Amino acid sequence: MSSSTSSSELPPIILYHYPFSPYARRIVWYLHLRGIPYTQCLQPHILPRPDLSSSLGIKYRRIPLLSIGRDVYLDTRLILSKLESLPLPISQPKLSAPAGSDDLALERLLSAYSIDGGLFSRAAQLLFSLDNPLLKDPKFLADRAEFATGGGAAGAKGAAVSREDMAALGPEALADLRDYCQLLETTVLADGRRWILKGNDKPGMADIEAVFVLYWVMGLPGALPKGMFNEEKFPRVWKWVERFRVAVGESKQTPAKKGESKVTTIKGDKASEMILGAEWNEKGESEVDTGEAIVQFHKLEKGTVVEVWPTDSGSGVAHRDVGRLVRLDAKEVVIENDKGLRIHAPRHGFRVKPSAQAVASSL
Questions:
Q1: What residue stretches are annotated with the DUF7962 domain (predicted)?
Q2: What is the pLDDT at residue 313?
Q3: Residue that terminates a domain, selected from 195, 219, 247
Q4: Are residues 322 and 309 in contact, defined by beta-carbon separation less than 8 angstroms?
Q5: Which parts of the chain have pLDDT scores under 70?
Q6: 150 and 196 share a domain?
Q7: Within this chain, do residues 155 and 220 fall inside the same structural domain, yes or no?
Q8: Looking at the structure, do residues 344 and 241 belong to the same domain, yes or no?
Q9: Which of these, 161, 207, 228, 251, is most buried using a 10 Å CB contact count?
Q10: How far does CA 189 lie from the centroid of its chain?
């Protein structure tokens, strides 16, 4: 692929998501801000999702997923890094801070704080204090309980946390969110800058990483008590969030137009037809790094049939993707499943081991 490629020359980009997923919004915002046309295939908010499991053979149960050609990417941080690597024209500049800069360190620290640091998990606890119809739906509760219990009959026996127990954590969650607002108000936003990275004339990756939890919670009616969270207490934060809302075209007052990405919506059968008929997004040689500890421990080789699943919840027990190992390095593991798709997962937060379902083969 040339050093600069127009969007029309890229393999098809298809986003599998449902609109109220806070993680999916991260990807939608990115595509919008960078002006990348894409296609969406909307999914139910609970399993089953036959568009993925039956049509594409993907067991991963989380949303969103993004395909670029016949390469399918899991986890929003990996998805964002892959979108950043697209060789687009200078009129569609990257959103990340320059390599080696203090700004890039801040961007990545905000990502770690929001996701690994527990800010999102804290925010999610507030759902149990709200009059949310989903929390009265036994199918939804059973689906989400799998994240905590690991699914199956064994997980269902006494391991699940009650709604009342979760609601009792609400005051602690509010305290942590208040601390986060105070952090932004008195540090990075304290000098009056418009965006998280000083000097930026539009939001970048650091803003996506910093805003997505707050944006989601602020959109949940009743989640944030007005006495603790309001524009008077956190004026810089409130104005920054509103600027972001305008920039991504989600403000009723000033919808964004310039650089707006074009999106079309298709059904699952059309999406799988497009993906399976496409070329690879990543066409270079792939290798398994023999210096990686996991490679040495399991004696992995290119072509070894392995299982890949996320480790931060019990959902991985029943939702492991299986395929021939194509690439493994410090950042990423890539497998090819029996549908001929290459599934990419980050090393961080995912586990890899030889599969009990098959024996090693060679590519």
A1: 124-252
A2: 66
A3: 247
A4: no
A5: 1-4, 6-8, 146-161, 252-261, 313-317, 358-363
A6: yes
A7: yes
A8: no
A9: 207
A10: 25
| 150 secondary structure, DSSP code | -
CA dist 282 and 27 (Å) reads: 20
Query: For residue 361, what are the domain limits?
Result: 285-363
- Cα separation, 31 vs 91, in Å, equals 14
Burial class (CB in 10 A: 0-12, 13-18, 19+), 116: middle
pTM attached to this predicted model:
0.91
Last residue of a domain, one of 200, 222, 247: 247
* Chain segment 217-239, per-residue pLDDT in tens: 999 999 999 999 999 999 999 99
Neighbour tally for 149: CB within 10 Å: 21
Quote the tokens at residue 171. 């005051």
Do the Cβ atoms of 56 and 275 come closer than 8 Å? yes
What pLDDT is attached to residue 7?
67
pLDDT at 335: 98
In the structure encoding, which two tokens stand for residue 187, read together?
Answer: 């540090």
What is the pLDDT at residue 152?
39
33 neighbors 82 (Cβ within 8 angstroms): no
The answer as to whether 346 is a domain residue is yes
β pairing state of 305-310 and 321-328: antiparallel
Q: Tell me if 292 is assigned to some domain.
A: yes
Distance (Å, rounded) from C-alpha 210 to C-alpha 322?
A: 34
Query: Inter-axis angle of helices 76-84 and 205-218, to 10 degrees?
Result: 140
Q: Bridge partners of 322? A: 307
| DSSP state for residue 16 in the 8-state scheme | E
- As beta bridge partners, residue 310 has 350
Determine the pLDDT at residue 8: 66
Kind and range of the H or E element at 17? Answer: strand 13-17
For β-strands 332-336 and 342-346, DSSP reports them as antiparallel
Please report the pLDDT score of residue 191 as a whole number. 97
| Domain identity same for 140 and 192 | yes
Q: Which two tokens stand for residue 129?
A: 């204090």
